[in-house]
């Protein structure tokens, strides 16, 4: 297949797992012999020496995300025209069999309408809430179609329409309302993310579900059977990640807890300071660390159990997958896509998000029950290596792309 990948960020310039997964699957498809070209933004490359990337074009521009400014309407018009002209040129030159669209956060959503007009088969990989949350917030499409706004804004829009500016822009950078975007072929990283998106009124329940993969050549280890002494927490230090619930649970069982919680993550300074003060004031056995992505496989293998305390609708979290692949037993919440991974007492121990007392009970349970600990560590390890390794997930993506191309 000739595949054009469209995404907002592409490593080595990335924010999180979405971009890393895009690159991993893109490279895996290239290794399988497909002709894959990437078109992405220039985020992170301005002022940097160019890197030889024959299959990556970093010409698109980001608006309002990742430190890029929100532009006034005239400057935004030129950005929209630039992004759409760049995409149209790529479609003309590359003539792809299919376009594989990843995260569109910060990119012009008018690009979706341009792809729709082009008639080129398009597949969307939806791994976060960009459709659910940011599609209707797109400044360009919203400005042209809003029925509200200041008097000056309404006059400006009317003048641009009467003078033919809208018609000329629309020929290159579509100005149609978001409601005209159709997602005919798409897949989500969890059924829960698909459900949440549909609840916002989008026609997406026909979409598939392809879960996130783990590089099991890196994240691997022997299932942990020993009584946990070194407990692990990994993630963004923020309220929605439930780290404070973990600390409150430790406070409830401080005299019975036979270990140390090692926290790996970063967050906003004020919140991190509050967490550290809480742990210090209550004399909790907590150690604070940070690590690079390359160091994380060794971090998992150096610990005995993972606490996954997320309290928001995670699309499909990688952290528990990585821990399970390395052999750790996991205690986790059932928010978001995690309900499609965890089965209480079988491959994990679960509790209600935000329930510190219940989490405390689960920690003591895993600490004392050797058979339970061994069972979930072995089952989780086996399932991740069988179902969520890179090869079977790439198989699913490859098949979905192929099936999206008319015979």
Automatic annotation (TrEMBL):
Keyword Transferase assigned: yes
The EC number(s) this enzyme carries: 2.4.-.-
Keyword match tRNA-binding: no
Glycosyl transferase family domain ranges (all copies): 224-380
One function term, GO molecular function aspect: glycosyltransferase activity
EC main group: transferase
Highest taxon of source: Bacteria
InterPro entries given in the database record: Glyco_trans_1, Glyco_trans_4-like_N, Glycosyltransferase_grp1
Keyword terms, alphabetized: Glycosyltransferase, Transferase
Domain Glycosyltransferase subfamily 4-like N-terminal: 16-186
PANTHER family: SULFOQUINOVOSYL TRANSFERASE SQD2
Listed name of the protein: Glycosyltransferase family 4 protein
Protein species of origin: Prosthecobacter fluviatilis
Lineage: Bacteria, Pseudomonadati, Verrucomicrobiota, Verrucomicrobiia, Verrucomicrobiales
